[in-house]
Structure formats: C-alpha cells, structure tokens
Amino acid sequence: MAQKIKTHKWASKRFKITKKKKVLACKACNNHLLTNKWKVHKKSPYWKSIEKTRSKTIKNLVPYK
Q1: Which of 6, 16, 46, 56 could lock 24 by a disulfide, CB 3.0 to 4.6 Å apart?
Q2: What is the pTM of this model?
Q3: pLDDT tens by residue, 44-61
C-alpha cells in the first residue's frame, strides 16, 4: 500500500491553487496598522499569481489542495 504525502501546513495557509493549477500568494503588509498606509496599496488585489519556477516547488509542498 502506497503512503500518502503529508502537506506542509504553513504552505497551505499561505498559498491557494486555482482550478487551472495557478498558484496564488497572499500580498504582504495588509493585516494591521492600516490607518497609516496609503489607500491605493490597501485596495490593490490581495492575491497575486506566482511565477512558474516557484509554483512547481509550492505544488510539491501542497499536493492535495
């Protein structure tokens, strides 16, 4: 019987994989102390896509997502 691969929990919390197998990452600096930050930066998209070279490693860390 083949063993399952464990998912890395830190990676599953930080990355999302879409139906078309693109990897999305959370944008940094958007959680707290928002009163001092510029309005344009706060309204910019929260999830952004990652390059293909890095996405291969992330897909190995999160195999079942």
Answers
A1: 16
A2: 0.71
A3: 778 889 998 999 999 999
